[in-house]
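Hi,

I'm pasting everything inline rather than attaching a file, because the server keeps stripping attachments. The sequence lines come first, and each chain or strand is labelled.
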Amino acid sequence: MEDIIIIGGGVVGAFVARYLSRYQASILVLDKETDVGDLTSMANSAIGHSGYDPVPGTKKAHFNVLGNRMYPSVCKELDVHFDMCGSLTVALDEKQLEMLGKLQERAKENGVPAELLSAERVKEMEPNISPEVKGALLCPTAGVVNPFTLTVHAMENAVDNGAKLCLGAEVTSIDKTKEGYLVHTSKGDFAAKLVINCAGVYSDKIAAMIEKIDWSITPRKGEYYVLDHYAKGLVNHVLFPLPSEKGKGILVTMTTSGNYLVGPSSEWVDDKEDLSTDTPTLADVRRQATMMVPNIPFREQIRVFAGLRATPSTHDFIIERSKSYETFVNVAGIESPGLASSPAIGEYVADELVAPVLGLKKKENWNPCVRPYVKPMEMGLGERNLLIKKNPHFGKMICNCEKVSLGEIEDELSRSVPPHTIKALKKRCRAGFGKCQGGFCQPQVLLLLAEHYGLSPLEVLYDKEGSNILEGVSK
Amino acid sequence: MVTRDLVIIGGGSAGMAAAVAAYDNGVKDILILERSEFLGGILNQCIHNGFGLQEFKEELTGPEFLTRFVKQVQERGIEYKLNSYVYEITEKKVVRYVSEADGAVEIQAKAIIMAAGCYERNAGAIGIPGDRPAGVITAGQAQLYLNEYGYMVGKRVFILGSGDIGLIMARRMTLEGAKVLGVAEIMPYSNGLNRNIVQCLKDYDIPLYLSHTVSKTIGKSKLEAIELSEVDENLRVIPGTAKRFEVDTLLLSIGLIPNNNLLDKIGVKQSPTRGSSVNQAMETSLDGVFSCGNVLHVHDLVDYVVDEAKTAGVSAARYLRGELNRGNKHILTQAGQGISYVVPAVIDVESAAEKVQFKFRVRRPSKEVYIVYSMDGVPFKKTYKPAIIPSEMEIASLPLSSFPKQEGCITISLEPKEAK
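And the predicted assembly:
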């Protein structure tokens, strides 16, 4: 029997696990996918929002602002790339300019620094902005983060500190028992004293397994374009339009890898697994984005993708013990600003909702840091040369587009939450994320995975079960 | 920092031919940097034949063709390094590379030839609607898996794009026992060489759907089906025309793009081909930096790649001897009506030879047309073409003396036989 089972290994589940691993408790994280952070956590705008725009007094505002303040130190500990580039909410007409004033007041109420900029100043900072710009609200504490490594490294830190992870385990039902819960999954049954529901778009389904709930999660899809890192300076901040009831709107942003993201759209979908993109939606994304940045070079487009927001019927985060049991905690409806809020949510759930209930004691030797990742491309020539002399595999380039060496791939395979699939490896070290999308490097990556896990190359998956890349051997 | 006379980025057909030409023209200090384990570039995975008809007057397979050049390189003792990845070139012609053997190294080059080839456009670049399962890959990647590693990627295949790579793979997969249900081409005409349409599709009863595209990919983990739709004259999907094909593999043959970011990143002037802008000597806007092969513009015949590379090699040799000085007199070139691009982008009159070679492609298959060469709007030459297609690059050699002026802009355009 575990002390704690966490259902869902996305960024929320990972941070809950990380902060709980500070306590003397046995923790098991269950995720139905083949990797942590494989759904919403990897298909979003990758932004550490400042927290200026959630309605003051809501959980969204509280956890966003707190999370934003935690980001620099957390990302340092977890060796996650976070670039505090700041965000600009851009007004393109007089009416929008007025609204900026109201947003600045809201920022103040939320305790978030925000400065109103004139059109001239915005044009200086963003040479590619629309000439229609009337002004913008600058939030200097917002930034862009690597969402893939944020989740993976948070989970790695949890596992390094004793937590356990079981992938491919889909929860089918939960029985309330005398000692706690019996969680039935596709990988077997697991017992725990306390269960934390971090199941994303499925968190209503999980919550309803032990009691009747009066809230629901409806998936809201967002479609994006990804542009290659062809050059610096298309935009230097996260650019937002004015927010509406649909959400933050369609942004144009840089990423930590030098790419640019354009999106997301916002549509309700019925199917909790619908991650498809479609032409009219993407065309509309493009239309709206080019109102803000007219000359977006869509010629540099290398990818489109979609992610699902877990939108709660309550319009705010649901972070609370269930009605029936203090040992069943729901962390649901973590849509935007979920990524930015995740460290704060994790800490709160661990310290306020779980530890007191189980009477947990802190560990003495909790290590907040992951083993630092080697980044040859960020080294100077001399340092890099020494690195390769010590381990020549850092000199063998596997992914040419993203400049990923064999040494870095081997490092990923040696970690406590290693990649098992092509996509999992992509998320961690970017091999296959570039302009040729794995055209040249995927075969080598596939063979490396096969060799490491003792599989036939035919068994290597791209992502989900059944997504084998190879079908057979040549005649 | 070590200084080398000539550093060549890429050891494929372009890189090797350029090296041999430079050597034969007096450059003895040459270093080829090749990122993969072998010389030869993309031809290593092209096991079909059809290479070398012009260069060697023989029909060779890809590996046979490249081996001829490897021999030429080795016979001359030209230095090359394999598994060496160039990650940066500076405006001062410093070349930085990494390899297991050498570590991280920087070299001061006196001259550089960029011969880094091209890469395939992929599904994400055109935003094919639907899901993003495994099973959607480029034709070249499927070819790599099959010819280099010995693995098949699927059993039931559909191909998007009637370019040569797609056609070749249609035949290749069929020979391996896969069922190829069809090839879709968005244009009303095929992009491939005629001989490939016949030898790869007709001979295997694989239907070619012109004016069609894949309008949806369906599958949660691996591809399950695609929808094929008709397109209108604006290449937009016509609603209601979708036909479903149950396939586990969608191969994409939707275009090749020069792999030129090393030069793009340092502000070297770009061409509409997405390679660098060069003059008739294959020199880019950066002194002593030359470009040739698919990284300059995508070729359909490797024989022409070799020819272009020889020009680059000879130019590099002249440059190193101080004989290739940029003059003040320039003729710009421009792609006019019906033409998609012209190489070179500029002619440096003082360093040009007696004849200037123009390479260009038409936008659409055309019959009974004139290729018209005009200078500042005034036509000075017309060549009649009974038929001309985009997938076959045109090469025309014109004497410099035939230009009405030695300064200005030459436009190449297409005009129908009956102008009015």
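Chain B touches chain A through 57 residues (CB under 8 Å).

If the labels don't parse on your end, tell me and I'll reformat.
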